[in-house]
Amino acid sequence: MPHRGLLPPAGPARGLAGAQLTNALGDGAFLVTSALYFTRVVGLSASQIGVGLTLGWAAGALAGVPLGHLADRRGPRGVAALLAVATAAAVGVFLLAGSFPVFVVGALLYGCAQSGLGAARQALLAGLVEPGRRTEVRAYLQSTVNAGLAVGAATGGAALHLDTPAAYRVVLGLDVLSFLAAAVLLARLPAVPPTAAVPGEPRLAVLRDRPYALVALLNTVMLLYMPLLSLIVPLWIVERTAAPDWLTAALLVLNTLTVVVCQVRVARRVDGLATAARYVRWAGVLLLACCAAFALSSSGGSARSAAAVLLVAAALQVAGEMMLAAGSWEIGFGLAPADRQGQYQGFFGSGVAVARMVGPVLLTSLVLGGGTVGWLVLGGMFALAGAATAPAVRLAERSRAAAVPAGSGDVVPGADAEPAVGAAG
């Protein structure tokens, strides 16, 4: 009988979920208050915040692969704990920042530490959980993170209500503590042995793996959905529709609760690379439909009709988001060599940093500047990237199989022969 509940079954996977829940509580509070903290307390302009965060996520996109490689060679548990501490230090820099240069230093450290932490945690998951359960466990982690972000956001909302420098600093202090606590929880997990370098092989082999790079690029295009509900849709509702402004918060709540409740159920149906590729293709179709619905919401009519269309669009968006997540997790793990999960997860995960870096500027120009046509162009991008994923995955599978010498002991993607260390159960 399938396990029920927010956390995965007892074992290392539950420890991973506990660590991510802990830092998600702090992150949720930080995310909803950071913009006002940087402007009202630190004294930065909106353009300075944008430049600093862009530089930080650019650095993070570049740092993911080498830090993931470090996790492979030194062991992902220790590297993940160290990078959680580094993230706490970055938030500490924000807490002490009083000028733009100090803010940039914090943003650079934050972007690098977060990207590396994501890669190391993924490598740790790959070492602790058998291949057939990784996507399901990753779905549990995603649900846990969303729940933690929601609770943390409520805490941040209290700070916004108080609107004092002390309240904002308390939120950042809690975020620091949450990452330090997460580091402790990560350090208590079972160790995953480091992998030794193979003589003659390139140190960062993922940078020469063109088929995998193609799959990662397509995934990055799909990840451009990320700024939709947090930035683009709120501006669209205010500027282009008759719907009430408060609906933006309702759509965010709908998204968060749906992921918490449904993500694991969606992910359980993914049982290999072929299924994963189909999920990504359908995610592209759903995101196209959601973009068309968002465009339709500005076609006039009453506030009630605009709100109804926006709710349908948000429901299509979260369905596509969950299918994309489940499919991309399986693909990212399944196409990565067993001994280089860290650097491959770092490369695959760099799409998140790229989407956070270029997504707001690109989507603001495309959607808010282009209106209905912009929405349809964006939806077409999602649909094309989703459709192209299946042939790209098959190409990567063939390339990987051809590169594995007979008797090498490496694992062909989709096979569940890789031994698990302390498998969750």
Description:
By secondary structure, this protein is mostly helical. It has 2 domains: 1-193, MFS general substrate transporter like domains (Growth Hormone, Chain: A, Up-down Bundle); 205-404, MFS general substrate transporter like domains (Growth Hormone, Chain: A), CATH 1.20.1250.20. It is built from 12 helices and no strands. Helix 2 (46-74) packs antiparallel against helix 3 and helix 2 (46-74) runs parallel beside helix 4 (100-128). It is globular. Mean pLDDT is 88; it is low at 405-425.
Keywords:
Growth Hormone, Chain: A; disordered C terminus; single chain; 425 residues; globular; mainly alpha
CATH architecture of the largest domain: Up-down Bundle
Terminal Cα span: 13 Å
User: Regions with pLDDT < 50 over 5+ consecutive residues?
Assistant: 405-425
Q: What is the overall pLDDT average? A: 88
Query: What percent of residues are in strands?
Result: under 5%
CATH topology of the largest domain: Growth Hormone, Chain: A
Question: What's the name of the CATH homologous superfamily of the largest domain?
Answer: MFS general substrate transporter like domains
What's this model, at a glance?
The protein is 77% helix and 0% strand.
Give the topology.
Elements lengths: L11 H31 L3 H29 L1 H21 L3 H29 L5 H29 L2 H23 L22 H13 L4 H14 L6 H21 L5 H24 L6 H32 L6 H63 L22
Helix pairs in contact: 1-4, 1-5, 1-6, 2-3, 2-4, 2-12, 3-4, 3-6, 4-12, 5-6, 5-9, 5-11, 7-12, 8-9, 8-12, 9-11, 10-11, 10-12
